[in-house]
Structures are given as C-alpha cells and as structure tokens.
C-alpha cells in the first residue's frame, strides 16, 4: 500500500495553515508524515520539503504563532494577479499556451532580483540537499508553459527547486535552473494531485482549492487511488487568511486555524490514510 500526500499553493498564510493542519493531525495520532510520496506546489513545496526532511512540526507551528513586526504586508499585486488569473482561466486558450503567456508576463514584471529571492527561501529551509524521501516539486517553464516536476533525480538544486515553485508571477522573479527560467507551479492550477499517480491512498491539502476545485477533483480521480480525500480551508480558516495571501501578520491566525481543522478532520483522514 503506497500513500501520497499532495500539498498545494497558498502563499504565506497557506504555509502557516499547512503546518498547523499537519501538526493538528499528528497531535490526533494520524501519521500523515509517513507518506511514501510528497508532491508540493508553491507554499506546498516549502511545507513538503520541511516534512520530507523531518522538521519538528511543533517547533514550526510555534514559530508561525509568534507575532512579527508591524511592517505593512507586501501588496499581492491585485490588478496584475487578476490579469494573470484571467489568462489561465480563459478556456478559449490551450492551457499550456496560457501558461506561456503568463510566463512572458512574469519575465517582464519588475520584481526583486533572483539572488535575493533564493536567499529569502533559504531562510525557510533547514537543509540544502534533497531528502531521501520521494519529494516532487512542481514548477512551470516560463518559455513554453510546460509543467515540470523536479526531484532528487532532476539535478536541480533543492533551494532553486523550492524557490522556483514559489515564484508567484509578478511578485517573485522566475528562477534559473540549467539555463531555463521557471515560475510558480501554481500557474498550472489544480494542486498537482495527478503527479501522485499510482498511489493507493491519497490526501490532498489545498489552501486555494476554491480557485480550481473541479480541476483538483479531476486530478485526484486520474491517480486511480482507492481512497482519496481533499482537505481545503473552511470558512473560519479563509477568514483567518484575510484578503492578502502574502500578509505575514496573518500567520498566527492561519496556523491556529490549521491546527483546529487538523484535529477536527483527524477521523476522516485516518479512514483514508490508515484504515
């Protein structure tokens, strides 16, 4: 019996909620961290890497609960973000072509430099080498819109792979790997569940499921898994996130919301994961 855990995108608040949810499940006795395969996209790439490297979830949650300075959150680039989302949601444009158009927009955007972005991601990761676990991180090629899975066999540095998967177009710079530039795997939409094909048990955690729930359900069905479960934020968690998914001041509320949902959903997850 093989188990796959898929972690979707969701920005700063999504990272906090993911960590809280996984910690809540562990507190309730659900060994979600024993997944044979972990697929991570964007925020899920950070959390998946932490989980695969054996991070202390209690310590990670405690760090998220700490209040931080009152520096105003970085704007989420609402106008540009909506324009990019409109391209991706336009069914008259083939999906890969739409992603390529967003890639062009990402390359043209005035964002922070790539080395600074890599350094910022580096502060989130406890290791620089790929873990022994089957960890798969999702990115999108800015040039042609191809979605690419990076893992230990890909040759990509772990730091670059995580940074690329988190490189939200217009907010963070695309990341260079072997001469190609990659952006946020979330541009693919969905959660990347189809990349866990072959698993017998599948749990998908998607902080932004509301944007592409139908796509995620299709991905899950495509895996052929005998037992599946989609976990998404409830209304209280969405309120904890607030309107800006990059708002660091929302981390404490988001991680607490995740803890609550993890404990509440423990029985449902156990039925899929351990029964």
TrEMBL record:
Active site: 42 (nucleophile), 184 (proton acceptor)
InterPro entries: Acyl_Trfase/lysoPLipase, NTE, PNPLA_dom
Motif DGA/G, residue numbers: 184-186
SUPFAM superfamilies named in the record: FabD/lysophospholipase-like
Motif (GXGXXG): 9-14
One Pfam family linked to the record: Patatin
Molecular function GO terms recorded: hydrolase activity
Keywords, in A-Z order: Hydrolase, Lipid degradation, Lipid metabolism
Domain called PNPLA: residue spans: 5-197
Motif (GXSXG): 40-44
GO biological process, one term: lipid catabolic process
PANTHER family given in the database record: BLR7027 PROTEIN, NEUROPATHY TARGET ESTERASE/SWISS CHEESE D.MELANOGASTER
Protein name (record): NTE family protein
Native source species: Actinoplanes regularis
